[in-house]
Amino acid sequence: MICKYRPGTDGKLNSEASRKSSRRIRTRKISSDNMKPFQCQKCGRGFTLKRNKDRHVNYECGHEPRFQCPYCGLRSKQTSPVYAHIRKKHPEEEVFIFDMKL
């Protein structure tokens, strides 16, 4: 098990930055997976970039969640949702995660 620290984080959000991001409206073009040029052979999910498909195949599709919150056990296949979870649900705690792969 390896602990991963995110440098420069103290577990507290910048209030100005959080206000700006809450006002931001996200617009996303939704397209069908079968219209995307790179397809996962296991699950059929489509990707616009080859590197995203490769990441999905190597780390996500058919794999157990690899990264875990050290405070409550939440697990994810990617690090960023765990870091965001820690900042939101455990604001007074140090921001790091466990890598369950090793």
From TrEMBL:
Region Disordered: what ranges?
1-26
Q: Per UniProt, what is one GO molecular function of this protein?
A: zinc ion binding
Q: Which UniProt keywords apply?
A: Metal-binding, Zinc, Zinc-finger
Keyword flag Nucleotidyltransferase: no
Q: Does the keyword Transmembrane helix apply?
A: no
Give residue ranges for domain C2H2-type: 38-65, 67-95
Organism superkingdom: Eukaryota
Which species is this UniProt entry from? Camponotus floridanus (Florida carpenter ant)
Instruction: Indicate what this protein is called per its UniProt record.
Output: Longitudinals lacking protein, isoforms A/B/D/L
